[in-house]
Design brief:
Strand content: 15-25%
Distance between the termini: 44 Å
CATH topology: Rossmann fold
Number of helices: 8
CATH architecture: 3-Layer(aba) Sandwich
Order of helices and strands: EHEHEHEHEEEHEHEHEH
Largest sheet: 8 strands, mixed
Strand order of the largest sheet: 3-2-1-4-5-8-9-10
Structural class: alpha/beta
Shape: globular
Bound molecules: NADP nicotinamide-adenine-dinucleotide phosphate
Number of strands: 10
Number of domains: 1
C-alpha cells in the first residue's frame, strides 16, 4: 500500500519504520525538508512535503501534534478526498488533577480533523500506545481500538494495524472517537502515575462475574 505520513516525529518514525518493514511504500512529509529526509533515510522511506505525502498515500497518517493537525491538513485536504486518514493524536495536556482533554465540551480531535478534510475518511487509530511501543517488540499482539465510519477506510486501518504486529479492534463510528480520546487521558495518566490500567479489567468471560 502507498502510505503518506504527515509529520516526521516520534509516531511517524515508529509506525513508518514498521510499515516499510512490512513492504509498504511510505513517504514522509514534513515542513522541514531536512527532518523529512533524515527520517526517510533512517527507515527506508521517501521524503517530501505535506502535499507530496497527502498525494502519495492511499492511506495517510496525520502525525503532527494535535494542535497542528487541522492547520496542516486544511491546505492538502483536496488531496485526501476518498482516502483513509488515520488520526493518532492525543488532545491531552497535564492538569491540576491529572491529564485533561483539550477538547472537553467540544468536538473530538478526530472530528475536528474530519471537518478539516471533507471527503477524507478519518479513522482514530494508534493513539493509546506510545511511539516507543510501536517502534519496539512489545506492541506485537496489543489491541488497537479504532473508530471510523467508512468500511473501506476501516479495512485499510485494520491492514496497517496488522502490519505492525498489533490486533485491530473496531469499537464504533467516528462519533465515538471522543470516548477513545478520553480513555487515553485516563490510561496514559495511569501509566505516568505508575499504575497498570490492565489491572482494572477482568478477562471477558468474567466481565459479568
Ligand atoms: N509520542 C507518542 O508516544 C505518541 C503516542 C500516541 C499518540 N501520539 C500523538 O501523535 C502525534 C504526533 O506525536 P509525536 O510524538 O510523533 O510528535 P513529535 O515527535 O513532536 O513530532 C511532531 C511532528 O509534527 C510537526 N509539527 C508540529 N507542529 C507543526 C505545525 N504547526 N506545522 C507543521 N508541522 C508541525 C513537527 O515538525 P517540526 O519537527 O518541524 O517541529 C514534527 O514533524 C500527536 O498528535 C500525539 O498526540 C504520540
Amino acid at each position: 500500500m502507498r502510505i503518506g505520513i504527515l509529520g516526521a516525529g516520534n509516531m511517524a518514525g515508529a509506525l513508518g519504520a514498521k510499515w516499510v518493514e512490512a513492504g509498504h511504500d511510505v513517504l514522509i512529509g514534513a515542513r522541514s525538508a531536512p527532518r523529512a529526509e533524515e527520517l526517510a533515510k533512517r527507515i527506508g522511506a521517501r521524503a517530501g512535503g505535506f502535499a507530496e505525502a497527502a498525494e502519495h498515500g492511499d492511506a495517510v497518517l496525520a502525525a503532527v501534534g494535535h494542535t497542528a493537525t487541522a492547520e496542516v491538513v486544511v491546505p492538502v485536504a483536496g488531496l485526501l478526498v476518498g482516502k483513509a486518514l488515520l488520526d493518532c493524536s492525543n488532545p491531552i495536556v497535564p492538569g491540576p488533577d491529572g491529564l485533561m482533554l483539550t477538547t472537553d465540551g467540544g468536538p473530538s480531535a478526530a472530528r475536528t480533523l474530519a471537518d478539516a478534510a471533507p471527503g477524507a475518511h478519518v479513522v482514530k487509530a494508534f493513539h493509546l500506545g506510545a511511539a516507543e511501543l510501536w517502534a519496539g517488540p512489545h506492541g506485537r499482539g496489543v489491541a488497537v481500538p479504532l473508530c471510523g465510519d467508512d468500511p473501506a477506510a476501516l479495512a485499510v486501518a485494520h491492514t496497517l494495524v496488522a502490519a505492525v504486529g498489533a490486533v485491530p479492534l473496531s469499537v464504533g463510528g467516528l462519533d465515538r472517537a471522543g470516548y477513545l480520546e478520553a480513555t487515553a487521558a485516563i490510561v496514559i495518566g495511569m501509566w505516568f502515575a505508575g499504575q497498570d490500567p490492565r489491572t482494572m479489567l477482568p478477562a471477558a468471560e468474567h466481565a459479568h462475574g
